[in-house]
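Progress against Task 2.4 (sequence-to-structure conversion) is shown through the following example record, which the project officer requested during the mid-term review.
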Amino acid sequence: MQYFSSSGALTCYWEAPLKPYETVRSDTLRALPHSGGAIELKHKAPEVTFLGVNDQPDFATLFITMYPQDSVIELRSLKEYLYQWRNVVVSYERFMDVVYEQFMAVYEPVRLRLTLETRPRGGISSRLTIDSDWAIRGGKEEFRDWVGMEDSW
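Structure tokens generated for the chain above:
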């Protein structure tokens, strides 16, 4: 708890405690049944926030592309899941790895592609992508729609 004085009056506020990324729980994510028909789902979460490794706030947009198997993302749970990251100290890369692993475990999709676009901080913005279709991630590279794709910002 800290006290600040502006114009003589003391104001009290509570800082939220910083948390490690291991505290983000995947059981917040809910799955809705899917009939199994071929479909591509795309979700955009433009208000992702977490704390960088120097406790500086990071703001990003998370793009989710999923080819579901038996279940799809229940969107309210996605919002609650992403909100858990708000006071978590984490690097961009660890954030993506954890989100990817948790989504794969909960939804078991045919394909999952995540792209994170960060807002500039210190004059630098970043874009990170993970795709379950990549051979390096254990995929078969059967979709290959990312090959030759123009990387425009």
